[in-house]
Design goal:
The protein is α+β, with helices and mostly antiparallel strands. The protein is about 30% helix and about 15% strand. The chain has a four-stranded mixed β-sheet. A three-stranded mixed β-sheet has the order 4-5-7. Strands 1-2 form a two-stranded antiparallel sheet. The model is unreliable at about 1-10 and about 15-25 (pLDDT under 50).
């Protein structure tokens, strides 16, 4: 803020303006705007690198997922969140191929990440390091018969598979196909976690008798119309921050009941003012500028 000290405005006003500029510079919306304006990936080295944490980082050398492939079609193309680490884009293509081979349907792929990752203006706190993707639970008959138009990809809605009033599955939307895809994805070694609505986790635990693959299926708020796949930090990505390892059990024990408690449905109100977010890793600053 060197320019502030050289201002000809009165000292009191100058101090106020400088304070506001500092707040804006460090605000989430200011940072997210900078990352959302970037339209192309950038590489800082010869291999793709996820940098920082899933909720606080960026990606060097991202690749764009082709908008159509065997067993999948990309949605919401106008958002330009079609970029990810090559390990992520390869995973989506492999999952699509498995889905096509087993004649399950066509996966509708939601957001991956921005060209260089980083925070987004809307929709996500994560998806910052090119290792996250949202996949709709909806299986569209139109998508099974043909490529969707650009307009359809923008306006088609993902239907919830959960009845929020009864906290039960909506059997008009949920079929064995969703279960099969979750099973296939959870068994792929690069997958670290798959986030679903707690109702879905509970139903899978009932149906599959606490099978070991369910340990990767993690309950989380919302996620009733899509599931969120998170890839583990790729090999040789030394700046990628790993999450704590998952417990070895299936996650179908008493801990699952908490998600249906009053505490879970009404999280405690925050009592303190939110602090300014920490700056992104230094490599992200280099990548952005």
């Amino acid at each position: 803020m060197k320019a502030c000290s050289q201002s000809f405005i009165t000292p009191k006003k100058n101090q106020y303006i400088c304070l506001m500029l500092i707040v804006l510079w460090h605000s989430p919306s200011w940072a997210a705007t900078s990352w959302s304006l970037v339209t192309t990936p950038k590489a800082l080295g010869s291999t793709a690198q996820s940098i920082g944490s899933y909720t606080h980082g960026c990606i060097s050398g991202a690749s764009a997922l082709p908008i159509n492939g065997a067993g999948y079609q990309l949605m919401r193309l106008s958002r330009q969140r079609v970029y990810g680490h090559p390990v992520l884009t390869h995973f989506i293509q492999q999952l699509g191929e498995r889905v096509a081979q087993e004649k399950i349907g066509v996966l509708l792929i939601g957001d991956l990440g921005q060209p260089r990752g980083g925070p987004t203006l809307t929709g996500h706190r994560s998806h910052q390091t090119g290792l996250d993707v949202d996949i709709w639970f909806l299986y569209s008959q139109q998508a099974q018969q043909r490529l969707l138009s650009s307009a359809e990809r923008e306006t088609m809605q993902a239907a919830s598979v959960v009845n929020m009033q009864s906290a039960e599955l909506n059997l008009a939307q949920w079929t064995v196909r969703q279960e099969k895809v979750l099973h296939i994805a959870a068994q792929m070694p690069e997958v670290e976690r798959i986030f679903v609505n707690p109702v879905i986790k509970r139903e899978l635990c009932k149906r599959y008798n606490a099978a070991q693959w369910l340990r990767k299926i993690r309950p989380w708020w919302k996620h009733d119309d899509h599931f969120h796949v998170r890839i583990a930090c790729p090999a040789n990505n030394t700046h990628c921050e790993k999450q704590a390892p998952l417990p070895m059990d299936s996650g179908c024990d008493a801990g699952l009941a908490w998600w249906f408690s009053a505490e879970a449905s009404k999280p405690a109100a925050k009592t303190q003012q939110p602090s300014l977010p920490a700056p992104l890793p230094l490599l992200c600053k280099e990548l952005l500028h």
